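Try it yourself: sequence plus nicotinamide-adenine-dinucleotide, in.
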Amino acid sequence: MALITGAAGVIGVATARLMAERGAKIAAVDRPGADLGPLREAVPRDLVLIEADVTDEASTSGYVARTQAAFGGRIDIFFNNAGIEGPVRPIPDYSLADFRRVMAVNVEGVFLGLKYVLPVMIAQRAGSVINSSSAAGVSGSPGTSGYNASKHAVLGLTRVAALEVGDKGVRVNCINPGPIRSRMMTSLDDARGSGEAQGALRIPARRYGQPEEVAAMVAFLASDEAGFINGAYHLIDGGRHATA
Ligand SMILES: NC(=O)c1ccc[n+]([C@@H]2O[C@H](COP(=O)([O-])OP(=O)(O)OC[C@H]3O[C@@H](n4cnc5c(N)ncnc54)[C@H](O)[C@@H]3O)[C@@H](O)[C@H]2O)c1
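Structure, out:
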């Protein structure tokens, strides 16, 4: 079974669909008020929907407990994926409140997910965690200090967690997508006054990625085929960062 946070988002839905097609039961976490329609359509059966704020510790222990209750105590796969982009502004104009909001969801949310899911996986001596970092987690981009800092922190958390649990049958990796056709990318492009046509010029593939291309990497990292892959980051960016 797979537990997915930010499951109502574009990448969450694509991943839930792929994992369900491959036979996984899905526990889907998103914030109260999120539009769950696309998720319900993508996963017509064996879906447990959980409203929870990933920045809240009690909500996090609660979504883990509800997942265990629904699926016989096990959590085989954890896609620790909820995230927000925050505003696009140079650092002098980026408010501390916005910075803290981005760090709360993207870093504290990921940390809390690890804190409560890892003990379940350690106890069962098996499990795969995939954290959503970003290409912004291994590079800079002007205007998104909070987002880039938060996604670098996700890579740090991934590496520490992998070292802590690698001898206990549990793997922790992160994914680092470049621009993906999505609500989030449209929001960032709009704030920058650009669009895919301009953004794609910087990508060797000359296009943005599809959410399904991210889902495919998550499903691979979750599978036994990735059994020797731990503590690593995985760019899905059409070659954009091959120059790094
Ligand atoms: N879209 C891209 O181009 C892209 C690129 C790199 C990385 N990412 C990362 O992938 C992840 C998914 O992105 P997406 O494109 O699907 O974005 P999205 O906005 O469509 O989905 C994110 C989901 O997280 C949920 N969420 C936000 N705050 C939450 C909270 N406090 N508690 C619970 N749920 C919360 C939202 O409701 C939303 O459903 C994010 O972490 C994002 O930073 C996205």
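One thing you can check immediately is this: The chain has one domain: 2-178+212-233.
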